[in-house]
Structure formats: C-alpha cells, structure tokens
Amino acid sequence: MRKTLAATGKYSSLVIASLVTLVPLVVIVLTSLKTAQDYATSGPLDLPRHPTLQNFVTAFQDADMARAFLNTTIILVASVVGTIIIGTMTAYALDRFQFRFKKLVLSLFLLATLVPGVTTQVATFQVVNELGLYNTRLAPIALFMGTDIVSIYIFVQFMRSIPISLDEAATLDGANHFTIYRRVIFPLLKPAIATVIIIKGVAIYNEFYIPFLYMPSQDLGVISTSLFRFRGPMGTQWEILSAGALLVIIPTLIVFLALQKYIYNGLSAGATK
Amino acid sequence: MSDTPDAATVPRRVPRPFRSNPRPAVVRQSQRGWRFTPWLFLIVPLALLVTFTYVPVANMFWYSTTDWNGISKVKHSVGIDNYVEFFTRPELFRVFWVSAYYLGASVIQLALALYFATLLSFKTRLKNTFKGILYFPSLINGVAVSFIFLFFFQPGGTLDSVIGLFGVSQDSMPQWLGNPDIINFSLAGTSIWRYMGLNFVLFLGAIQSIPAGIYEAAELDGAGKWAQFRYIIAPGIKPIIGLSFILAISGSLAVFEIPFIMTDGANGSTTFVIQTIKTAFESNKVGLASAMAVVLLAIILIVTWVQRRLVPEEEVNLT
Fold this sequence. Notes:
heterodimer, A: mainly alpha, B: mainly alpha, MetI-like fold, 15 helices
C-alpha cells in the first residue's frame, strides 16, 4: 500500500513537472498553426480550426530568417573552429611544457573565468570599436574565440589522460612539437573537441547580447537578433511571432533529439567549469 | 611553425609531464626549443585573452574614476564620485532588491532539481522521456523563451486560460507583467522554467556516478529510499550542490536576458546588469556604469573566494 502511494506521488509529480514544462511550448505550437482570424476568435488553449503553415512562411520571409541562419552559421563555424584551435594549443602548451611564468599564465586564464562577461561589455565595447570591428561579423567571432576559458579547461583536463609516452614515441620518430601537436595530440582530443563543439555551438546559437550590441545593422542579424527585432513590426500578431520563435526552436530540438547522449555529457563537463 | 631545429639534427627530447621533477640533463641540449616553443603555442590565445578580458577590465577601473560619456576625447577625473553616486541613489541601488527575487528563485530551482534528480535516479518508467522534457528548456534560445513567456503572461494568455480552467473569472486575473509587485515573481518564475533542467541533469549525473553497489548494500541492510537519500545521495553530491548554490548567487546578480527582452526593465524589473548597460549605452554615463561593473566584479570575486574557502580544493580546482 505504501509502495503504491509512493509510486503515485512520484509519477504525478513527474507528470505535473512535464506539463508545466510543455504547456507553454505546446500553446505556442497551437498558436502558430492558427489563421489570424482563428487566433483572434479563440483562446490560447483551443485547437486551431483551420491549421495552416502560412505563419511559418510569413515569419521566415519577414524576419529575414534565411539571412539570419546564414549569419549565425558563419559566426558559429568560425568561432567554434577558432576556439578549438586556440583551446587545444593553449592546453598543449600548459600541459606538456615546463616554462617560466607558467603559473602566471595559468592564473591569468583562471582569473578570467570569474570576470562577468555582460558587464565588462561597457569597456570591451571601446576595445572592439578601436579595433574597427564594430558592426562586422568579426566582433562576435573574436569575442567568442577570445573569451572562452571553459573550453581550455576541458582540453587541459582531457589532455592529462593522454599518456606522455605517445609524445615521447613521436619524438623518437623525429617529430617536432608542432607535428606532435597536430598528428598525435589533436586527433586524440576528438572526444573533448566533440564536447566543446556542442557546448560552444549551443551557446553561440543562443547568444543574444553580443550580436545585439556589436552588430546593429539589419544585414548582420543573427537568429536571436532577427527574432528580437521581429517583435516590433509584428506587435501583437502572436500567430506569426509564435511561428518565428518555433523556427528558432526547431533546429535545437532536432539537434537535441539526435545528440542527446553527447549533450548531457558535454553540458555536465562545461557547466561546472 | 615551430622554432625547433630540424628534427633529424636534434637528439632525443623528452617532453616532461605536467608538474614534474627536474628535467634530465639530455634535455638541456635543446634549451632553445624548450624555452620558446610553449610561447609559440600561447601567443595567439594570450593576445586574445589580454585584448578582450584584461584590457577591458583595466579600462573599466580607469573609466570608473572619470566622468567619461563614451564618446568625447577628454575624460575628467572625478575620484570616487561614481561609486558614491551608485551607493547613495536609491533608484540605482534598488537593483540589488531585484536580485533577491532571482536568488529566491534559484533556491527553489535547486530544490526542484534535487528532488527530480533523486526521483529519476531510482528505477522509473519513461525515465529518458522525463529527463529530456525537463532538460530541454535550458537549450532554447533566450529570445524564443522570452516570446513564449510574453504570450504566457499576457492578459488572456496561456496562464490566464489555464487558471480559467479551474473556474476563476478572467476579470480577477492580475497583470502578470504589468504590476510592479508581481512582475519580478513572473520573471523569476520564467528563469526557473528555463534553468531548472540544467541543474537537474548535473545533479542526476552526480548521483549516477555513485556506485550502484552502495544502494544494494544499503537495501540489504533495510534502508528505505529516504535513508538512501539522506545517507548516500546527499553526502555524495554535496560538492556539486555547494558549487551550484554559489553559482546561483553570482548568477542572480548577473540576470539579464529574460527581463531585458521581455520587459526592457520596465515596471521595476531592472536588474543590475540592465541598469549598468542602460547607464552606459543609453544615458552615456560610461564612468558611472564602469563603477557599477567594478562593484559587480568585486562581489563576484568575494563570493568565489568564499566558495574556495568552503568547498574542498580538489572539487573546484581543475588545474
């Protein structure tokens, strides 16, 4: 008897939590399928009477989503590739060499994790401006690449599990340090690289503030900023705004369903820094 | 790319492990390679680190003692006036009260995350489905989350309709985002919806890394589920709970995206970061904004210092 009661309590709390999570999302899906007239005459929980995909077409065109996805992709690919190269190089230098000021360099990277990114934008903005990067795609790329310390930690941690004897064997075969880095270390870091791609990819896809601050030009809209600016002209046309939000969510959902296992592992690696 | 001499002419060089003993004499022969090679790998990362983290932080300290507006060529030194202004103007200082809502929300969020992580660590049907549902919101784009909850909270929106199902009249519904007494509860609730799953997955991972044999032994000894939680799970994941709690404190000071996109800080929902950003980029008071950023940085450094004192070294130190 007590057991059934406990099980009932357990499953009802899980179902309630799932409903709380899903209802706001499902309502957005329902709304996005309604015609304007349907939306105006029905409540949020009512099913669409004449389901239509027209809102998605309208949102995709009016919010200039094609360009937004292109800009996001360019920035994402460039930043992730840059982060991987920079992160693995730093980790290689920090893990495989003894050199003067190593402690200092290490603490510089460590201390940087504590600096809250959003507020320092007050001063970072001036640096980006001085470098002539304002209102170019290079601004977010440089910032995503240059301020990512978490990836460096993931690489350093992983690199410690790669035996030094591999480096030594390669040295015996006549490899120099760069060759060791490129041919021995880099390929062995693949699992860590996959983790960084996932963490970084999700973070950049979702980043709002950096593109918002540094790329005010309409042509440089990424998905976050394009969706944000879309709200102005659409006002209260929630059937179209819902479709716009879903256009941004659907790729995330697909990636999540396809890579669930890696995402769980990756995010636990990244979140605790 | 490397400054080491051609490999064929160089005798064996033995790379040393991290934090190793003094290197053997053989290595001395290639001293040059030893001394400069690491810097070749570090020069670009360090240049980026200094340019985009340390130069801004240093400038921030400098700007905070001036009256700079962000544009003009001259900056007048004003000493600590900016700091005095921040701490004495109530409308600036009240942002700390807004943080309190998010801190309260974080406590609820961590408690819920711990509860669901513990539930799902035991045998459960549809385990992965529940896990996926609870976790998915933390992956959603912040602008999309904001749209979802603008619709959720608007008059006659999702929340009002759901409450209406229980027979409550629509006219008695409060303005979830329009009433300054309620708005921060609504926004902090949105924050729980968005981030609970992230803590939950972290806790679940920590619980599952406890060897299963311990539970079995405890069950043989007659320990119930509560005893298992109290004496096995809770002590086992104490470090991650401690860390999450500390991160929640700095996180609740750094809240930005949701209130900025949803309400633009209106109706008393301005957070520390929104206030700082607006002071800098809308009021053009870069000096004052820098002082606020310095205060936030100081608070976060103190909180982290406390964390390092409380949480055992090996749990946090990754280097």
